[in-house]
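User: Could you write out the 3D structure of this protein bound to NDP? I've included everything you need below.
Assistant: Certainly. Input first, then the structure.
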Amino acid sequence: MKGIIFITGATAGFGEAMARKFASEGYDLIITGRREERLEQVQKELIEQYGIKVLPLIFDVRNKEAVNTIIPMIPEAWQNIDVLINNAGLALDFSTIDEGNMDDWDTMIDTNVKGLLYVSRNVIPWMKARKKGHIINIGSTAAKHVYQKGNVYCATKHAVDALSQAMRIDLLPYHIKVTAIHPGAAETEFSLVRFKGDAGKAANVYKGFEPLHAEDVAQVAYFCTTLPPHVCINDLVITPTQQANAYYTYKET
Ligand code: NDP
Ligand code: 8X3
């Protein structure tokens, strides 16, 4: 066993791809999500394919009480977490502030910002005690620029950027690395969630260019963990080759 990787949101997209990548490299995994069946399917496949150990934890990262109950109950042998990947997150819809849906705002803020904090608050003390660890926060190009009608989602990802910088400062004395990875457009379930199940609208986002694949992000996240103890990638933006930033993508017609 090479180490333990804790990945939130491993039932789909980047989280699932990162689980597969780290499993293929021989790491044991703690994987989380709300969809129990899908998490158990991922667990089963990874154990069968790679012979690693997998601990699935079902909880909603927005549920402070659940996070504060379930994570501290992890068996002691699993508490030696080498890498925490705060990945669970989502965007909901596009709208101007004056027309925004307040429930959508709550969901995005509670998941992308508060959920990341709740999970980190529970895991970091174990890393601090060992003076060892690596936190990877999944931000977005939306953490770097704000685009039209993306207001609250962009604000949550700017917060992830700020929190990554803050964690890095706090954790310097403990030799804990903090890396923020900011992907551009990637075809996962992200747009299906954003458009609340409208597959046509979701597919349209990726027309005219080749988006990132979840595996591209997984490969980069894995790379960030392969560097020597004295080297940390702090901040990394990865986009499709036809995307310059959050608001400019060259689409062929
Ligand atoms: P997916 O929708 O494919 O996957 C999202 C994952 O997050 C799922 O496993 C989902 O699990 C989990 N999740 C969502 N809400 C919660 C919650 N409240 N509690 C627990 N788990 C939750 O999207 P991506 O893989 O694309 O997104 C992963 C991260 O990457 C997000 O933070 C997103 O903002 C970010 N990102 C995505 C980009 C893209 O273009 N795809 C680009 C830049 C950043 P379940 O539903 O089972 O709970
Ligand atoms: C996801 C990418 O461009 O929809 O963070 O904000 S984008």
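The beta strands are 4-7, 28-33, 54-58, 83-86, 133-138, 176-183, 235-238, 243-245, 248-249.
User: Perfect, thank you.
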